[in-house]
Amino acid sequence: MMSEIEMSRRGVLAGSAAAAALAAAPPAEAQPAKAPAPAIMPVSLTINGKRRDLNLDTRTTLLDALREHLKLTGTKKGCDHGQCGACTVIVNGERINSCLSLAVQHQGDEVKTIEGLGTPDKLHPMQAAFVRHDGYQCGYCTPGQICSAVAVLDEIKRGVPSHVQADLSARPQPTDIEMRERMSGNICRCGAYSNIAEAMAEVAGATVKEMGA
């Protein structure tokens, strides 16, 4: 039989070994905190002349609201960082990169996408000019290019005094350089820039040659 001293010694050694093993064991994985439910807000937009009421996650961009919730997939997602212009739409008459703003920021706004500019049976003059001048190749950037081109000519028009605007023959035409500069935020990786400028020039009522290009 073991003496009381031996039993106590063995107990101390066993207890020490158990404590050491427990200390060496990896800590139990903590249960991940439950993610809070996304905040949902009602948003009312006028899209291409029609009111649309949505309930959206407050983190939803205008681009994703158009593409994923309204199925208006003409507006393209390119870089998703506001650097390529493929997602350009016209909001309250101003062109914006729809990937850079949240849909909830546009409560009550009027949004025009490529689908709202024209139809296959009745093209917008800018769409028709792009077709005539081959202002596209792969076509991915084309919706953003056209929306931006339409807005650019409106920007230029607004910069002309109203009494001059009333007389179309007296309205000064934008130069090729000016239009290219204004369109610089819209990237065409196929390199159809000259064709795009020619299409815009036609709609503006002049040819690139007449503008001194």
Task: Outline the structure in words.
With 213 residues, the protein is an alpha+beta fold. The chain has two domains: 40-116, Roll (Ubiquitin-like (UB roll)); 118-208, Orthogonal Bundle (DNA polymerase, domain 1). It is 36% helix and 13% strand. The chain has seven helices and five strands, in the order H-E-E-H-E-E-E-H-H-H-H-H. It has a five-stranded mixed beta sheet with strand order 2-1-5-3-4, sandwiched between helices. The protein is elongated and about 105 Å long. The N and C termini lie far apart (110 Å).
Alpha-carbon Rg, integer? 31 Å
- Alpha-beta classification: alpha+beta
User: What order do the helices and strands follow?
Assistant: HEEHEEEHHHHH
Q: At the third CATH level, what is the topology name of the largest domain? A: DNA polymerase, domain 1
Unreliable parts: none
Mean pLDDT: 85
Q: How is the main sheet built?
A: 5 strands, mixed
Distance between the termini: 110 Å
Query: Class of the largest domain in CATH?
Result: Mainly Alpha
Strand order of the largest sheet: 2-1-5-3-4
What's the shape? elongated
Count the strands?
A: 5
Task: Please identify which CATH superfamily of the largest domain we are dealing with.
Answer: [2Fe-2S]-binding domain
Can you count the helices? 7
State the CATH architecture of the largest domain: Orthogonal Bundle
What percent of residues are in strands?
5-15%
Oligomer: single chain
Helical fraction equals 25-40%
User: How many domains, as an integer?
Assistant: 2
